[in-house]
Automatic annotation (TrEMBL):
CDD domains in the cross-refs: EAL, GGDEF, PAS
Family matches, as InterPro entries: Biofilm_reg_signaling, EAL_dom, EAL_sf, GGDEF_dom, Nucleotide_cyclase, PAC, PAS, PAS-assoc_C
Pfam families: EAL, GGDEF, PAS, PAS_4, PAS_9
PANTHER family found in the cross-reference section: BIOFILM ARCHITECTURE MAINTENANCE PROTEIN MBAA, DIGUANYLATE CYCLASE DGCP
Domain of life: Bacteria
Name of this protein: EAL domain-containing protein
Domain PAC intervals: 306-360
Length: 792
């Protein structure tokens, strides 16, 4: 008998009709067609038996007889997998041909006239032969289908890989017994296939001598149907054993119902032995002063001789209360008269407690324990309803933590969670028990303050809230500074419904955040401002659609030679009503509405097109820099987009520069390092903007791949007119020295006076940019300026 120890597999593509599209050397080796001969030939030319393309395509392949290189024929497994194009439409087939040594044997072992390899495929279940090393050397296709492994994968697998970890000790012992003792073994296992399908199987085997060696030959039979029957039998058994609940049978005796029988479950639940319960009316277990309505329902149902189901509290023998789900059914005699009642009681105390707990989880935030959004709306609706009835006021306070993302980026998300929990405790301790504190989402909290007697009272409460949030939070040996912006809306003045109140409080909070934090009460003017912001957001969309945005380019000059060394792209908006607008007038709103990424992509495209035009005019060494925001460069696909643009516009490495403020890079060092490395990899230069504006981390900057630093505008602006005597002049000189010590070019921007030019040039600043040299120029003006300089 031939035993499989390896297999050969090739893959190629066909079109929808079965004509070969791709062909590699491995296919040439197996079938003899060269890569030049194969394309366009039909798959049927490789088939030696009765199988043909239409039937194979409809079934996804089959075990077929094929023609191989050298005129040989033999069995192989052909697998056809449908391919799809980018639109999801079917487009061709992937054909995989697997041939094992047993398939290609010239004289395979036979049972009668049938090859053994086909006999084992006729067997029910899985069939396998395993050598002493635990490797599969022979198997049928049922094993491949069950495991969802290819022949190569099965040949490389170890038998113990098929068993779950908890089953392996027994499997290894059985494996040992087969080879060492010649035992016949069997065991049940649970096999989990590649797709996650679990199959319970009864596997077994025995030792067989073959070709001078010994193997474990065995079979596996799915016992899924047996398991399902066992499960159904077990379920039926549980149903028949309803006696796990308490059962009480009573006899009608006038106004009483005398207990005649109780089962052991009743004794366990109620704590009364059968001897103490029989002969008494079940009312002896009643819990005084509880659930009088439910008990009256039971008395009425018994009097009317009908069934009833109630849930109430009873009392165990030890005095403990428990929740009892009681179903009572009348039993009639042969004359139709009710003579007995059967009561089935179930102790649902744990379920009641669990339900109460689940209700709490459904309505509360899992991190802070505060009311969640669902409960908030319910509480706010209720508060508004009561305030309307009692002619009182309700205050809605929306709180947004300041710089919470920075806390997460700097100290980690664990620190952010700690901050949120501390803030929740502080808010709860600063309000009354009748008030509601809710976590709306993320770092946003909403408070419902009921029964507000006056605005002065509300102001004092909100100020107490604000002060409670100003104290830093201790975490990991650090003190994390926190702050918050609070917006307040009052019912009924600022809104008549819950939704109106929350919107008004949100507008007030937005106003507070825009003015540096603190507390702001809603005013009608805020609604107008909010409408203006919404209108601005819509206008930004129209600006993108109607080509109202445009770029200007301000040159960077060599401080010594006066030559142009590059340009900075500056965004402008030609607004149909307000004229030309600077970025400060609309980019903040674009950030809030999520339109910043789309605007940024447009700017990058325009800047790259301008670079391409410069190169076509012969100006191949003038880079263009583009400012990008954190929202842009932290987007997935930002770097890939830059690489695509560099290739699309034919730009060499270093032609495009990305400007990022120093503070943004330092705020998230990990992202800064990754971004720097990825920019360098795609040939885009990194320029650090606003160098020296805040805290600098020189050790961190040395880790980045940076082309240049641009002095902060404040450092240039503060250069004294009378030379180097002022503090601003000293700061600029220090920053230039630091930049050079880091081996970086230093650019002074926003240069507007002769004194600034003289100072920066005399202290070694490499390049200068600003109104003193040139205002930002239209592309045509740039080309004209460059041509004039070239002619000069």
């Amino acid at each position: 008998m031939s035993l499989i120890e390896a297999s050969t597999q090739v893959t190629f593509l066909t079109d929808d009709e079965g004509n070969v599209v791709t062909w590699n050397p491995a296919c040439s080796t197996m079938f003899g067609w060269t890569p030049e001969q194969a394309p366009g030939r039909h798959l049927d030319a490789l088939l030696a038996g009765d199988a043909h393309w239409p039937a194979l395509a409809s079934s996804g392949g089959a075990r077929v007889r094929m023609r191989f290189a050298g005129g040989r024929e033999g069995k192989a497994t052909l697998l056809l997998i449908r391919q799809y194009d980018a639109r999801g439409e079917p487009h061709g087939w992937s054909a995989t041909v697997s041939v094992s040594p047993a398939d290609s044997t010239s004289e395979p072992e036979r049972v009668g006239n049938t090859p053994l390899a086909e006999v084992v495929d006729l067997l029910p279940g899985t069939f396998y032969a395993i050598n002493r090393e635990g490797r599969f050397v022979l198997w049928n296709h049922n094993l491949e289908r069950m495991t969802e492994l290819t022949p190569d994968e099965l040949a490389a697998a170890h038998v113990m890989d098929m068993f779950e970890p908890r089953e392996r000790p027994l499997a290894m012992e059985n494996f040992r017994r087969v080879f060492e003792q010649g035992a016949e073994v069997s065991m049940e296992m649970h096999y989990v296939s590649r797709s996650g399908r679990e199959t319970p199987i009864l596997v077994g085997g025995a030792r067989v001598a073959c070709d001078g060696d010994q193997y474990l030959f065995g079979m596996g039979i799915s016992i899924a149907k047996r398991r399902e029957k066992e499960r159904q039998l077990l379920l039926s058994e549980r149903a028949l054993h309803a006696a796990s609940n308490g059962i009480v049978i009573t006899r009608c005796a006038g106004r009483d119902n005398i207990i005649e029988y109780v089962n052991p479950a009743f004794e366990r639940i109620a704590g009364y032995p059968a001897a103490e319960a029989i002969g008494r009316d079940p009312r002896f277990m009643a819990a005084p002063n509880f659930d009088t309505h439910e008990r009256s329902q039971v008395r009425l149902a018994i009097a009317e001789r009908r069934a009833v189901n109630v849930v109430f509290r009873n009392q165990r023998k030890n005095g403990e209360l428990f929740w009892n789900d009681l179903s009572i059914t009348p039993v009639r005699d042969e004359y139709g008269e009710v003579t007995h009642f059967i009561g089935i009681l179930q102790d649902v105390t744990a379920t009641k407690q669990r339900t109460d707990h689940l209700e709490h989880e459904i309505n509360h935030d899992p991190l802070t324990g505060l009311a969640n959004r669902t409960l908030l709306w319910d509480r706010l609706d209720h508060a508004v309803h009561l305030a309307l009835r009692h002619k009182s006021m309700v205050a809605t306070v929306l709180i947004d933590l300041d710089n919470f993302k920075t806390i997460n980026d700097t100290f980690g998300h664990e620190a952010g969670d700690v901050v949120l929990k501390v803030v929740a405790r502080r808010l709860q301790s600063a309000v009354r028990e009748s008030d509601t504190v809710a976590r709306m989402s993320g770092d946003e909290f909403v408070l419902v303050l009921v029964d507000q007697p006056s605005l002065r009272f509300t102001l004092r409460m909100v100020e107490r809230l604000r002060r409670s949030l100003t104290m830093p939070v201790a975490f990991g040996g650090n003190e994390i500074p926190i702050g918050a912006s609070l917006g307040v809306a009052i019912f009924p003045a600022d809104g008549k419904t819950s939704a109106e109140l929350v919107r008004a409080a949100d507008m007030a909070m937005y106003h507070a955040k825009g003015n540096g934090g603190g507390v702001h009460f809603f005013s009608p003017e805020m609604r107008s401002a909010n409408e203006r912001r919404a209108a601005l957001a819509n206008s930004i969309r129209a600006a993108l659609d109607h080509d109202e945005l445009f770029l200007l380019f301000q040159p960077r000059m060599d401080a010594r030679s006066g030559k142009v060394r590059g340009f900075e792209a500056l965004l402008r908006w030609r607004h149909p009503e307000h004229g030309v607008m600077l970025p400060a007038a609309f980019l903040a709103e674009a950030e809030e509405t999520g339109q910043m990424v789309e605007i940024g992509n447009w700017v990058l495209d325009q800047a790259c097109a301008f670079l391409q035009q410069l190169r076509q005019l012969g100006y191949s060494s003038l880079p263009v820099s583009v400012n990008v925001s954190h929202r842009e460069y932290s987007q997935h696909g930002f770097i890939a987009g830059l690489a695509v643009r560099m290739q699309r516009y034919g730009l060499p490495p270093g032609a495009l520069e990305i400007e990022i403020p120093e503070a943004d890079l330092i705020r998230n060092p990990g992202l800064g390092r990754d971004l720097s490395a990825q920019l360098a990899e795609v040939g885009v230069a990194l320029s650090i903007d606003e160098f020296g504006k805040g805290i600098s981390d020189l050790a961190f900057l040395q880790q980045l791949s940076v082309r240049q630093v641009k002095l902060s505008k404040a450092a240039v602006r503060d250069i004294a007119a009378d030379g180097s005597s002022g503090r601003g002049s000293l700061l600029a000189k220090t920053l230039i020295d630091i930049g050079h010590n880091l081996d970086l070019a230093v650019v002074g921007e926003a240069v507007e006076t002769e004194a600034q030019v003289a100072f920066l040039t005399s202290h070694g600043c490499d390049q200068l940019q600003g109104q003193w040299f040139s205002e930002p120029l239209q592309p045509d003006a740039v080309r004209e300026m460059l041509d004039q300089r070239r002619q000069a």
